[in-house]
Amino acid sequence: MAEHRTPLTQWHTDRGAKMATFAGWLMPIQYEGILAEHKHTRGHASLFDICHMGEFRIQGPGSDAALSRAASHNLATLATGRCQYGFLLNTAGNVLDDCIIYRFGEEDFMVVVNAARTANDFAVLRERLPHTVSLEDISETTAKIDLQGPKSIHALENALKENFHDLPYFAFRKTTFNVAPLLVSRTGYTGELGVELYCAAHNALPLWETLLADSRVKPGGLGARDTLRLEAGLPLYGHELDETHNPTEAGMERMLTSEADYVGREGARTLRECLVPLRVEGRRAARNGDIVALQNGAGVGRVTSGSFAPSCDCVIALAWVKATHASEQNFIIRAARNKLQARRTDIPFYKDGTARAKLT
Amino acid sequence: MPINPAELLYSDTHEWLRVEGQEAVVGITRFAQDALGDITYVELPDIGSAFQAGQTFGSVESVKAASDLVAPADGTVTAVNTALEDAPELLNTSPYGKGWIARIELTAKPDTLMDAAGYDVFCATEK
Fold first, then answer.
1. ipTM
2. DSSP secondary-structure letter at A233?
């Protein structure tokens, strides 16, 4: 199967980005280097090509009630112009995908899903929504570009000549760029102040180049995106979220506020394993799949993500640990080349993120 | 563009060797550091330890990957670049200079290594 290309793939390869296939898409991993791009995002602003993610439009009479039963999101508290993070669960209450739902109107929504899960999510939603509700996969025609970092709002305002200081966290607004629709959402996946931008695929390159014309903005690859999200303690589907763990185990119980009878609601709070944040001693990284053990050597879990954390200047990891041992403070990680000592910490690993900054 | 210095010898696992009489200095190549990306940790061999060509004598880790260091020749370690403990990024910024890894006393003449021209061709085939 040929790799999918985004409207920006050519731009990335022309600039010598290191490219790799991610969820079937040929994506930029790094331009200048992961550490430099990571630090630029924390200090200034970076632009990320996120066109691989999937977008669905759900609308029509009954869509509010039907979507409330299909996903864990609390649509009763979701106002028009706001978006919310939540989960698509299987009947056992485990996670089929994590996604953001945007409310465009009373009975009009956009759902943004992970690239690798798009086809499955669409099939699940089609099955759960009555046929009177329209479900459209708009991924192909929708481009997604993330602008993230403490300077992101200023750079966006400079590029669009429009004020966005009034846009609160997890709110969005429709505007225009190049006389075509542009959706600006005050959300992101780095722990920094920023926006996720949605536009027509053909408008992606002009928007990308306009934003990069600001000297504060540099392109960032998926490598930096991953170290940024890990430092912010944000889960990545396939690592911290999967079909054998529920949102409570992943530390997301606070998101389960919906009173609707949604699929998986009953099992969503069962606790078998807990996602535990760890600070690893030394400079050697723990990696996905490494066994987590107690001091006596008994295996009690496994690492889901681990990396040197550039802004914390230490090694951090997330791991599934049996619920019965999740409150232990000290663990041993059996890494590929030796044993590492790890100590329980809390998330976010990086405490100085600007994501929730109040701008007005 | 002279990427790989002409005076060095190269292994197919992307280490370099600079022979200086009975001793030699070992490092990883520009190609290797570029493939690994930002290097965050270097495991150095112990001074006095002996290795045969092809044996693992240490390891390097980057943000995204980890890789063994493979001895390019038979020898005994006489010195290691301890600067790498605090500044592993020297492997990225100066792979043939300040990013040297170890000095070894050769116990056999290296005979399986490539010259720079051969290594340039080898890298081209590695993509």
1. 0.87
2. T
